[in-house]
Amino acid sequence: MIEEGKPLFVQIAEQVEDSIVDGSLAEEDRAPSTNELAAFHRINPATAAKGVNLLVDKGVLHKRRGIGMFVSPGARELLLRERREAFAVRYVRPLLAEARRIGLGPEDVAELVRAGAAEPAP
C-alpha cells in the first residue's frame, strides 16, 4: 500500500525489507525485479530501481549478473539490528525520558511494560 508523504522508492525499499524481516524473503532468495515491483505498484521502473538500489547500497541485496537481485547473507540480521536501534531511539529513549520526568525508575517502567503485555490486544 502506497503512503502519501513518503517517497515511493523509500516505500518500495521498506516493503522489500519487511519481506526479509518477516521471513517471506529468505537469504539467497531472488528478490522481486524492478520491473516486477513497478508492475505490481503501477509505478515507473526507474522509481522501483531507485528503491532496490537503496537496498544494494545498504548490503541487503546483491546482483547476480544475468540472473537478478538476491537477498544477501546476513541481510535479515542487519535489518533487525537497524530496526532495534531505531526502536530504541524512537520509542524507548523518549519513554525513559518521560519516566524520569514523572519519577519512575527503570524497574517501574519494566513493570508497566510487563503489565501492558499481559493485557489482551485491542
From TrEMBL:
It holds the Pfam family GntR. The keyword Transcription applies. GO terms for molecular function: DNA binding; DNA-binding transcription factor activity. Keywords: DNA-binding, Transcription, Transcription regulation. Residues 6-74 form the HTH gntR-type domain. Signal peptide: none annotated. InterPro entries: Tscrpt_reg_HTH_GntR, WH-like_DNA-bd_sf, WH_DNA-bd_sf. CDD domains: WHTH_GntR. This is GntR family transcriptional regulator. It comes from Kocuria flava. The lineage of its organism: Bacteria, Bacillati, Actinomycetota, Actinomycetes, Micrococcales.
